[in-house]
Write a sequence for this structure.
């Protein structure tokens, strides 16, 4: 059984009111009848240009956005049927790494508190045990204890993304949505973060949905690739097959358009 079973997932946004008054006409299908399985331990790369619906899809899968229709199952458990209290428990197994390491961390919180927040919410740990756990998480992402009392603005973009990854790992999740985690970073720093994600996957047995507009990044990290265009998945398959012999014209254009990442 797949870790995640996503069937006919759809998110429709009605068009807003006109600036001249009156109601809007029509609707936007941000995600349109998408089905996808994600197996335990694999990385599925979800690629597409900006506005293709891939970030919306990632948030729908985690129920950060409520879908218009469809179904999402985690280990056979229907996420859309789960109550608020049930979802709170299920969220331990599902986390997200955001695109923007500058905006995703609370600038008023010290790094220790940023990483410890999920532990405070979900686990009853002593302060000493919690600090030990936070220190372990920092080491796992290539930082040390000197980061604990500092604030996010004191770190570089790559270091901030490492802090965000440590926070995502705090509750030992099974599944992580990585939403364009290197697009705000320069190429060399982005390559380091991609390598870190691959290392953490091996160490912690993680399963990723890795969202990106860059086919070369996805080719390096993903075991399978799903290509999204205008809210639909137009092609899905093994990474080697998709990159060597793409069937869809949109996939070919993505492969041709993105410079190589040397990780």
């Amino acid at each position: 059984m797949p870790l995640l079973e996503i069937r006919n997932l759809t998110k429709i946004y009605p068009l807003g009111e006109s600036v001249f008054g009156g109601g809007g006409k029509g609707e936007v299908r941000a995600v349109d009848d998408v089905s996808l399985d994600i197996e335990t331990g694999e990385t599925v790369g979800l690629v597409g240009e900006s506005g293709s619906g891939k970030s919306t899809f990632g948030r729908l899968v985690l129920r950060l956005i409520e879908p218009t229709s469809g179904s999402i199952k985690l280990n056979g458990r229907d996420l859309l049927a789960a109550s608020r209290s049930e979802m709170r428990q299920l969220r331990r197994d599902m986390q997200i790494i955001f695109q923007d390491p500058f905006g995703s961390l609370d600038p008023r919180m010290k790094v220790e508190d940023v990483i410890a927040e999920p532990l405070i919410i979900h686990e009853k740990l002593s302060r000493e045990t919690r600090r030990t756990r936070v220190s372990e998480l920092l080491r796992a992402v290539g930082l040390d204890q000197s980061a604990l009392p500092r604030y996010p603005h004191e770190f570089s973009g790559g270091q901030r993304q490492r802090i965000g990854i440590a926070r995502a790992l705090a509750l030992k999740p099974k599944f992580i949505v990585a939403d364009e985690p290197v697009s705000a970073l320069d190429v060399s720093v982005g390559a380091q973060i991609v390598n870190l994600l691959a290392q953490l996957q091996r160490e912690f047995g993680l399963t990723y949905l890795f969202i990106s507009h860059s086919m070369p990044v996805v080719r390096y990290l993903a075991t399978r690739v799903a290509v999204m265009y205008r809210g639909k998945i137009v092609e899905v398959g093994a990474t080697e097959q998709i990159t060597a012999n793409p069937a869809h014209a949109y996939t070919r254009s993505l492969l041709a358009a993105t410079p190589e990442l040397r990780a």
About this structure: The longest strand covers residues 27-38. The two ends are 33 Å apart (CA to CA). The chain has a mean pLDDT of 90.
